[in-house]
Structure formats: C-alpha cells, structure tokens
C-alpha cells in the first residue's frame, strides 16, 4: 500500500486515515488522548472502550466499522494526486472484545490484516468469520496477508479455549478450600471468567478499573471489587508472581492460575541456575517432572511448575495448527508477520510459503460455508473464480502487483514483541492476552 495512505495499529505521522484492530496496549503505542492525526477507524465496541483508555480523545475523529460490511473511504492517492477509493471490511477476530481483522481492497490490491486473532476450528464465531471472509474475497487473491504470528512455531500446540476453560474449572474444583488468583490483562479473557462464575455460581473479584471495563462490556452482576464476596480473584497480570503467591499463602491457602499460550519464563536465580531451564521448557518437556510434581492427568496440558501456580494453555491467539488452517483458507500471495522480535521472530514464509497462492491447489474449493436462505440452510457452491491456483495468468498478474506492493511498502506495524519476552518472576507482558 502506498505510503501516506493508511496505517493499521500504527500512529506515526504520514497517513490519511488510521485503523485500530483492538485495544491491547501493544497495538496502541503512539496513540494518546491528544492524538489528532486523522480519522480513526475501529469496531463499535472498541469505539465504546476508547474514551475509557484515552479520556480526552477527540471523539469526532472516531469512525465506526460495522462488522462484515464493506465501507468505502475516499482518499487522495499520494502518487497521482487523484481521488482513490479504499474498500475496507471488518471481520470478527475473536481475540478480545472489539478485536477485528481488516480486509482492504483498492488500487493497491487486496490486503488482509488479521491483528491478533484466534479462529479455533470448533468455534462458531470463527466459522462465521471464515464464511464472511471467503464471501468477501470472492475471486480476489490476498496479495499480502499481515498475520498474527505470535505462535508461528510448530511447538505451540494448545487446545481450544473451551477445553482450557474446563481445565481451569477442574483446578478450582480440586482446591475447594483455597483462594484462587487468575492473572489477566486490562482487556480479554472475559469468557473464561464468565465460565468460572457460571460453573461455581460465584462472583469474580476484579480491580476497580477492570470493573468499569466489565460494566462497559455489559457485565453488571458478575464482577465485584469486594474481596469478601468471593474466593476467586482476577488480578492484573503484572501483579501475578511467585512472590505474590508465596506472600498470600502466609495468610490463606491460595493458588494462582495463569491462562496463557506461552510457557512461563523465569529469571534464573543465582543460587539455582537450573530453575531457568526447567521452567522455560516446562510445557513442552514433561520428562523433567519428578513423580511427586506431575500435574493431575485429568488436567491435560496444564502445568504445575510451582507448588502454588498452574499454567493453563488458554490463549486468545491462534495456535500453530490454526494459523496453518487459516493460511490454507486464505491462500495469500505473500505473508508478513505482525509480531516482530529480534530474538525469536521467524518469517512466516519459512513455515507457510508452500501454502501461498500458486503453490498448492485451492482449498477454497473444499470450503463450503453454510448460508441461511429464507430460513433454510444452503451450501455455497464454489465458482470457477474460486479456483485461484489454476488461473495461472491471473495469479501471475496478482504476483506482479504484490511485487509492486512490496516496493511501495505498507504502513502496518510490527507489534513490539517485547510483549513476548517475559522476564523476572512476574509475567511482565506489555499487554496482550497470549
Ligand atoms: Zn491483542
């Protein structure tokens, strides 16, 4: 996309319009209450939450994107100076409240920016998203897929959030006389907390700002700031630590649950260098556990790496297998990861280049989204135009356009992957519901 046209999750100067996929702080770095560089497009729910995070933000700049609808934005082409129309559709990313993917079409081609997303194969919301995406693409090839590559490594295999939520419930049920501490961010994992509240018929404690967010999200009777009303407390992720749990256990028996797709990384203690390695690899190398330390088999992939702390693979990001399925569905010409890191970034093309358009038969032929037509279910029939890889000439044309895109560049941020570098006993993510 031409420099100077649009920016996604990036807030430096130089674009005509700006798009925000969701409100996690690693996507809003540079955005502030005084920000005034141009119209800001986001989902309706994000627009509702924005003033809480940025109290003095000029609300006249906000533009709401309705989910699953094309919106047309009139801009000036920086190269020709003529008017140009950018089409954009927001699609439910099923990451945190308000999170969206953005599908763009214009003179620059077709671009898909996932933001952070989780599309589980079993999720009805993800199925609806897939249907929307395929129907919106029609015969277009996605020239560049800007993708959430947080877990773009085959070692990241974890269950659906539904399964992980049951693991959390099992842990709580097996500790009937303990207080429970759960580490969360300022947005996200609400469904997990609602599930716990529903199963145990209890309220969940949250800190005062989080209670305000819950009220904005429409949850009025489930959460409380009174510790006397419940034994389950959802605390800020930054305050969740071994030190905290050890301190709490001097007062009352307490366990901590960290829902995350990431294994914990703990700073090595000088007196015990082995601690670092054992905790770092705990999720993926169970042979290190002695019999007495083994987690309950019923808890599946739950890890109990400290006597007071469980790590549960509940993630708002797609695991590797889900990323692979997503790319098979989209079949982009090129892929770029939106999460960069000097230490662990791997170009998604390393794993998925073979799945890009032209490199394998189109899976869109096999994807038949169900539609409801006048109360009846019907199946979308793939058309000739869906056969992306068989149209050699068209693919080549699109590839040439993609090469042009690479040359021109696209203002889409690579999210600072410091959020994934966790040091110290605390999980000090800058904030994203991993
Ligand atoms: Zn996020």
Automatic annotation (TrEMBL):
Family: Belongs to the DNA repair metallo-beta-lactamase (DRMBL) family.
The name this protein goes by in its record: Protein artemis
UniProt-listed Gene3D superfamilies: 3.40.50.12650, Ribonuclease Z/Hydroxyacylglutathione hydrolase-like (3.60.15.10)
InterPro entries: DRMBL (IPR011084), RibonucZ/Hydroxyglut_hydro (IPR036866)
Keywords noted in UniProt: DNA damage, DNA recombination, DNA repair, Endonuclease, Exonuclease, Hydrolase, Nuclease, Nucleus
Chief site of localization: nucleus
Domain DNA repair metallo-beta-lactamase: 224-339
Domain of life assignment: Eukaryota
Pfam families, per the entry: DRMBL (PF07522)
Annotated localization: Nucleus
Species whose genome carries this gene: Xanthoceras sorbifolium
């Amino acid at each position: 996309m031409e420099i100077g046209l649009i920016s996604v999750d990036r807030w430096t100067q130089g674009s005509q319009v700006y798009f925000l996929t969701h409100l996690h702080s690693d996507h809003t770095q540079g955005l502030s209450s005084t920000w005034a560089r141009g119209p800001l497009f986001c989902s309706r729910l994000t627009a509702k939450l924005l003033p809480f995070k940025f109290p003095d933000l000029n609300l006249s700049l906000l533009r709401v994107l309705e989910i699953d609808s094309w919106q047309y934005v009139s801009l000036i082409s920086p190269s020709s100076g003529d008017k140009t129309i950018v089409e954009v559709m927001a699609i439910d990313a099923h990451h945190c409240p308000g999170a969206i993917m953005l599908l763009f079409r214009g003179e620059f081609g077709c671009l898909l920016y996932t933001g952070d997303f989780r599309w589980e194969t079993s999720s009805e919301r993800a199925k609806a998203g897939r249907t929307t995406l395929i129907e919106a693409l029609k015969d277009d090839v996605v020239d560049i897929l800007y993708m959430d590559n947080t877990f773009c490594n085959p070692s990241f295999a974890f269950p659906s959030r539904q399964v992980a939520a049951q693991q959390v419930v099992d842990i709580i049920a097996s500790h009937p006389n303990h207080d429970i501490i759960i580490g969360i961010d300022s947005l996200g994992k609400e469904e997990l907390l609602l599930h716990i509240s529903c199963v145990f018929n209890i309220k969940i404690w949250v800190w005062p700002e989080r209670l305000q967010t819950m009220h904005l999200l429409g949850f009025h009777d489930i959460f409380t700031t009174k510790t006397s009303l419940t034994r389950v407390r959802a605390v800020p992720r930054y305050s969740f630590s071994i030190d905290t749990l050890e301190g709490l256990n001097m007062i009352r028996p307490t366990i901590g649950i960290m829902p995350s797709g990431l294994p914990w990384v703990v700073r090595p203690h000088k007196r015990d260098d082995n601690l670092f390695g054992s905790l770092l690899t705990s999720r993926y190398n169970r042979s290190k556990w002695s019999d007495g330390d083994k987690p309950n088999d019923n808890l599946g992939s739950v890890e109990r790496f400290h006597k007071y702390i469980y790590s549960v693979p509940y993630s708002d990001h797609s695991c590797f297998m889900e990323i692979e399925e997503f790319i098979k569905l989209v079949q982009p010409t090129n892929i770029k990861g939106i999460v960069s890191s000097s230490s662990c970034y791997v170009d998604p093309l390393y794993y998925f280049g073979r799945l890009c358009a032209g490199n394998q038969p189109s899976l869109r032929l096999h994807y038949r989204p169900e539609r409801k037509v006048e109360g009846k279910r019907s199946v979308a029939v793939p058309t000739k135009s869906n056969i992306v890889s068989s149209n050699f000439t068209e693919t080549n044309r699109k590839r040439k356009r993609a090469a042009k895109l690479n040359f021109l560049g696209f203002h889409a941020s690579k999210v600072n992957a410091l959020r994934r570098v966790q040091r110290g006993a605390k999980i000090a993510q800058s904030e994203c519901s991993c």
